[in-house]
Amino acid sequence: MRFGVFYELQLPKPWSEDDEHRLVHEALDQITLADQLGIDYAWAVEHHFLDEYSHCSSPETLLAAAAARTKTIKLGHGIRQVIPQYNHPARTAETVSMLDLVSNGRAQLGFGEGATRMELHGFNIPAKEKRAMAIDAVEQIANMMTMTPYPGYDGPYFSMPARNVIPKPMQKPHPPLWMACSNRDTIRIAASLGVGALAFAFVNPEEAKHWADIYYGTIMSDACVPVGHAVNANIAMVSSFSIHPDRSEAIRRGQDGFEFFGYALASLVTKDTVPGRTTLWRDFHDIRGNKTEEIVRTAALDPQYAAGIGTEDDVRRHLYEFERAGVDQVILLQQAGRNPHDQIVESMHRFAEGILPEFKAKADAREQAKAERLAPFVEAALKRKTWMAPLPDEAIPVIRASVTREKFVSRRPGKVAQNEEA
Fold first, then answer.
1. How far apart, in Å, are the Cα atoms of 150 and each of 9, 85, 146, 147, 321?
2. pLDDT digit string, tens, across residues 241-255
3. CATH number, domain containing residue 36
4. 343, 229 in Cβ contact below 8 A?
5. Do 154 and 185 contact (CB within 8 A), yes or no?
6. Which of 174, 224, 223, 212 is nearest to 370 (CA)?
7. Residue 272 contacts residue 118 (beta carbons within 8 Å)
8. Helical packing angle, 130-146 and 89-102, nearest 10°
9. Rounded to whole angstroms, how far apart are CA atoms 381 and 397?
10. 361 lies in a domain?
11. Model pTM score
């Protein structure tokens, strides 16, 4: 099983002047450390206008900075908003391809659609059409990253003439595709599209097994018709994360932030919001009250109370349950609420020294066996795909010049020699 780290860049209020700067650079330091420790993935979200929940509105910039500081960790959009009103599909293809080149082939493209009125209405996106818009866009993004030239498209949600979208990515045919999932239905949809499932929901191992069974059952069925040019058969699940030799201390360090994460996530769709005037952190503590020590005492008696938070043995047991459930990657959610940087770093070191090696030792063999088992199903799925036809050379449209050469030269007296050299 593989492991990742995950960044919403949460920033509860009140804010001080340098909070955003500190937050970004702590995240980069953590991704750099994750790379050094042998963690496999770093994922960054794309959200807009969500004051206390996420300040990661430009993940491509964060991931590019991380690429310059790391060597092997895969750098994932988890997710990029691919609906054209958020990001034109050609710009997504260009951005992801450039990240792949900059990182020497480590980019991952998770895609999504957004869920909140704050985001959707901010970009005039109709909520009822958002999933169809995202799937339509990502299919064309894959075509843009693989076809020379891209033949153009006149679809229900965007149109574009024939152009050669460059650069092309280092990974062929394109970086692995993933889809954000939050329930059994979206798990099934991701598998039907032949993309990895980024399960951004906190579920127990029993439910995770149901999700994995649905996912791989669909991958191996006639329902799988790839949206991209390759199949990425992987299911990743997020887990809370805090490790300390004293279970009570691990809970004390982690629980407050992770409870806020869940509270804020629900509030995005259940509470009215005044832009720039949110009070999520204050409201959370008003509801929760002064119960931290009470929660710690109760949870410390039950190692299953907060899965992913506890001693090394607690966390190891939790991760093995996910592995037995059929999960391919566990994404460790560490940056939540006001969890301090130094405590996050300490947990990462404990994980890398005490738990990671035993999973890493068998990861390659596990993946090879899975690939062999799925190979005939992947081959069959790709045969079911309807491929966009490339343009023959004689059908590639000529883009007419804006002005004739004669007019261009005549408008620039004294520049004839320069123009002729050019």
1. 35, 20, 8, 5, 45
2. 999 999 989 988 888
3. 3.20.20.30
4. no
5. no
6. 212
7. no
8. 50
9. 33
10. yes
11. 0.93
